[in-house]
Write a structure and sequence with these properties.
By secondary structure, this protein is mostly helical. It contains 21 helices and 5 strands. The protein folds into 3 domains: about 5-220, Alpha Horseshoe (Leucine-rich Repeat Variant), CATH 1.25.10.10; about 305-325 and about 335-430, no CATH class; about 450-520, no CATH class. It has a 3-stranded antiparallel beta sheet with strand order 2-3-5, with no helix packed on it. Strands 1-4 form a two-stranded antiparallel sheet. It has helices at about 5-15, 25-35, 40-50, 60-70, 75-85, 95-105, 110-125, 130-140, 145-160, 170-180, 190-200, 205-220, 230-245, 255-265, 280-295, 305-315, 340-355, 360-365, 365-395, 405-430, 505-510; strands spanning about 455, 460-465, 475-480, 485-490, 515-520. About 55% of the residues lie in helices and about 5% in strands.
Amino acid sequence: MPTVEELYRNYGILADATETAGQHKDAYQVILDGVKGGAKEKRLAAQFIPKFFKHFPELADSAINAQLDLCEDEDVSIRRQAIKELPQFATGDNLPRVADILTQLLQSDDSAEFNLVNNALLSIFKMDAKGTLGGLFSQILQGEDIVRERAIKFLSTKLKTLPEEVLTKEVEEFILAESKKVLEDVTGEEFVLFMKILSGLKSLQTVSGRQQLVELVAEQADLEQTFNPSDPDCVDRLLQCTRQAVPLFSKNVHSTKFVTYFCEHVLPNLSALTTPVEGLDIQLEVLKLLAEMSSFCGDMEKLESNLKKLFDKLLEYMPLPPEEAENGENAGGEEPKLQFSYVECLLYSFHQLGRKLPDFLTAKLNAEKLKDFKIRLQYFARGLQVYIRQLRLALQGKTGEALKTEENKIKVVALKITNNINVLIKDLFHIPPSYKSTVTLSWKPVQKAVKKEQVKIQPQVHLQRKLRQDQKGMPGRYIILPVENTVVTWAVFLTSKEVVSGVDEEEAGEDVAIVVEEESTE
């Protein structure tokens, strides 16, 4: 085996030869043999082998194997040096193999070494993203558990840091195709990470892309199977998948398949649900997910049937008032317990789906059932008002830090819940029942309005209508008639047919009245 002096001498031969270094195969072989020496020889070999690697394609396998031996050396400093130089071997057909080696090295428990592996992977990503991904996915599909786990984590944390010129559409399509293979057999935690990876891809942030992801989640949830409420794994898989699907739903990407499954299979078995998660109120968790999805439900085949199931479940949590004795007191003793959190979810879901069949309460229920429902609503509303007064009294005068105590946080949430229920009950008390009110579910953050330019205007201010570039002709004029001295935010008027309000309805309340008309241009 060569000495340090011999390694330097052969290095000199190759360095002096510059572009003709490939003619000195024997000199390069001496450097390759350096990996069999002591610590000093190995450190030199770790630097010299990659430096002249490109000149000896016929020795590529031997060179990569020699460097790999150094990556697995007992001396951590030698390993670090060898890993740092690995990207220099990532040329042409060798790149996927180097990516495969680096992926295996992610199992290192040495933090400095682990960071070097991460940096090396990122550097070859920029050379050939698809080839690097090939190595990563190869280990995810076939490697050891620890390598699989860290490779998935690498993708979930590092992909989003790569520039657009690296993550091209073709590369993203490759990620999706390979991910589908992995998703055929994943744990719950791995599934969550892959959804994080896929939902971050630019090509999947379109409506069609989101739809693809929803279909992927639906496959994972296996919505065609018979639901087993007593199997904790079955329940947990459904919840994990639904949680991943919820952020994907929108007015263009519908939740119909999931809402249908919940109504037909989960709601009837609500009380029988089991979960492996200790301390989780599984029934409330299910109802919260259903409520969030109900806003984005499209046309449902068995709408009336599913609305009936939802209505029946709602009735279970909306008790009839206790019977009164002759002296006017409660004959049964205890007042029924009102479960506000459950009712908020069920009432909201019913309100959302009820919009699609507005005559359900009047035409689909007989008079007795409707009367029974109104009595329950009335009784619940009375209890609600008492609780709302108690909460407001308890929170009165409290601001800032005082509202951040655990006790007061609970009261603030309780007030949101009760206010939501109150709004929804008022809607259903209308004759006929109304489904127009909108509420923000108590556990969801309130969407802050985008700050717009605010201008104080006087009555009968004329605004010139801004035309689209492709429109022709003279612009019309709009007269805005607000309440005097009202601060109004106005929109850009794009077409002559639009009636534009200066403020959002929710923001305006009853204090702003705005009329928009088009004046004749003649």
